């Protein structure tokens, strides 16, 4: 009876272990399936939408749209679950009465869908602003046209919304205006990015412009100060280098002279006939050989001479 109970416990434990393993595998599988890479670099040029495809082969794409007074996304006919990286949206443009559509593209793999990503317009048209930037110290001017087609149709209810922020940060700040917009209080020497979208009755209309970035220049005073500081630092460095060189030449002249002088050499005929003797000089060792004996001076006691006893002068 005890053996049967133990076997039953083992079977139950193994079943629970298998169930846990299956749950973990299912969770990993769901996680891998949910990680569908969203489309990148989505651009629209009139009726053609393009994007950068994913590296995986089994990813499909769907292009969707909505007008300025709708939030629901609708699939573009002919652009559903396609493997291409572009699609023509002329059919959707023709069906919509307003004509200015906001476009999105989503990725799908094995039934798992990514978040739709909005497309941007590289060139201005009736539904997307044409943007030009002028940067000045402390502010950025966004040049926009006030006589666009939406303004003619909706009057003052059609505005430009300029989203802006520092490069690398989300574009959360924005300003609305009918024409050009000047953004003040910007940091000098910092790059700012922006995008512009039409707003009709407070709702986005058409695709926004693609993000553009511009460097805010520094004032002339700051630039002039930089131009003064750099040469001054260079002059100070050269003066310090000259002082150090003069100090070394004055206080270490003998050592420098010793380092630069050539090594001493003894003539061969002098060093040939003598015993070598090690003599250090200024930290260097060289050998001096004594002179041969025949070159030694003769002591007075050993001098040989004749005695002169008389000197006679003859008449010339």
Automatic annotation (TrEMBL):
Q: Tell me any Pfam family this protein matches.
A: Tissue_fac
Transmembrane residue ranges? 228-250
Superkingdom of source: Eukaryota
A GO cellular-component term linked to this record: plasma membrane
Q: List UniProt keywords, sorted A-Z.
A: Membrane, Transmembrane, Transmembrane helix
User: Which InterPro entries does this one have?
Assistant: FN3_dom, FN3_sf, Ig-like_fold, Type-II_Cytokine-TF_Rcpt
Domain (Fibronectin type-III): residue spans on this chain: 29-114
Q: Which GO terms describe its molecular function?
A: cytokine receptor activity
Keyword Membrane in the entry? The reply is yes
Give the protein's recorded name: Fibronectin type-III domain-containing protein
Task: State the species of origin.
Answer: Collichthys lucidus (Big head croaker)
Q: What is the lineage of its organism?
A: Eukaryota, Metazoa, Chordata, Craniata, Vertebrata
